[in-house]
Amino acid sequence: MVKHTVTEAHFVILLITSAPPQVLSVSDEIESLLGYQPQDFISGKISLKELIHNNDQDIATRLFEPDLTHDSDGFNIRLRQANGKIRITRGEFSKKPSASGSNIELELLLQDVTSLSRSLENNIRNLNFRTLMKNTDDFIFFKDRNHTFTDISQTLVDVCEGEAESWTDLIGLTDYEVFPEEYADEYYRLEKQIFAGAELVHEVQEFIKEDGSAGWVDNRKYPIHDDNGNIIGLFGVAREITNEKRAEQRQIRLIDELKRTNDDLNNFAYIASHDLKSPLRGIDQLATWITEDLGDNIDSETQSHLRLMRSRVSRMESLLDDLLTYSRVGRTNDEVTQVSTARLVENMFELVATSDKQISLNIAADMPTLMTQRAPLELIFRNLISNAIKHHDKDQGNITVSARPLSNAFEFEVKDDGPGIPIESQERVFGMFQTLKPRDSVEGSGMGLALVKKAVEHVGGSIRVESEGKHGCRFKFIWPTTISRKNSYDN
Known about the structure:
Layout: E1 8-15, E2 22-26, H1 30-34, H2 38-42, H3 57-64, E3 72-80, E4 86-97, E5 104-112, H4 127-135, E6 139-144, E7 149-152, H5 154-159, H6 181-195, E8 201-208, E9 214-225, E10 231-240, H7 242-275, H8 277-294, H9 300-328, E11 337-340, H10 341-352, E12 358-363, E13 369-372, H11 374-390, E14 396-406, E15 409-416, H12 448-458, E16 462-466, E17 473-480
Parallel strand pairs: 12-14
Antiparallel strand pairs: 1-2, 1-5, 3-4, 4-5, 6-7, 6-10, 8-9, 9-10, 11-13, 14-15, 15-17, 16-17
Helix pairs in contact: 7-9, 8-9, 10-11, 11-12
């Protein structure tokens, strides 16, 4: 067993009401403990009270009170040494009336916590534990009530100040012998919370790495209890999270950039949907005036040209409206409500049905009622039903809407008996500005199915088309029963 000599010093101090404490005697060991001579204190050249760490002034107040409210106690206290460094000491004091009876006599014992008697054998751990402590990437340590290390991982040895090479070099030391004072102050503050009864103290702390860049550690400390429930020490785990923190900062920057991009897109969409419509309305009005001015004198060719021009103005306005809708899909808040999908489909059919075609709507009897967002479903069914009517090649036809349950979702189907979609065109129909017929033969912006696809995919669903290319087609899309994101679709 290795024996250790305890470095300690004794003070006898007279506590006088309305006057500074008067040091009567100091043992010679004070030089080994703090680096001062006994006469420095006796003469008043050095004030013991002024050497106490600023954050330990509560102990100083209790210690130097000239009364017997606290007549004895034990404590840990940080003192500034003659070399400017901090030393943690274990203190014990007692108070009694002075010989004259008019003052209080304070007897104080200060001990260097790093030299308190201990056995090296008490720090030996089993082989498995020591292997873990040697090879872990985390910073792991154990301390006693005096804030001294009783065990420590090799990772901490590698980052501490000084010339320590092994964990055994740090046993019995405090943070003030291992780290810069500003770091040691922070660690001591957290450890005081543990010894005051906290079950966990957790902070993310920034530090400066060797290359001068900022780093971060996730620092956690826990109490160690004996069989009687008394706190006899603590253990801590600190993990460097610099990469995670930098990734988090990059994510914040990307979110900010995305927000700015979205704001720019909003501004563009507003300009496209409002400012660009003004000259279109002017062109449409001019065509109306020309028609009115010519009256019966207008020839059939001119009348056809004007009708074509007004048709294309209307198509351009529709395109601008659809661009605005596309830009807003999933970018505004919407509440989840109860939606009868059968009633919703019926409403959308009534909205887009035309008088020039006799199209019948068949709705399956088992259509679900969902707690979901209404607006995106309206957008999807309105466009799918409108396309089925608009592109139907006969004066009469049928549209059937049905649904079947899946795990955590429904698969909806919109089926028609129209001309179908050629197999080679089925992939591109979901693209922007895509039409299968000349734009002058079928009015439309070519944005409808692109809107549908974006709306479905935004909530985590999918959509596909099935058609043999000549007779009818089926659009099938999967819609989740639970919408996790509160997004809506501005129509």
